[in-house]
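seq:
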Amino acid sequence: MKNSSWIRKNWLLVAGVSFIGVHLGTYFMQRVAKQSVRSQSADKQRNVEE
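struct:
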């Protein structure tokens, strides 16, 4: 009998960690994008006031 690989034995754990990792990655990318837009709009507002 062949030994199963670690990933085959723990496929649910691997899928869960991958799922969480993808969602955390997209969450942080959205935060960075929102912060960038906020800083750009604040710069434009300052330029209009001057």
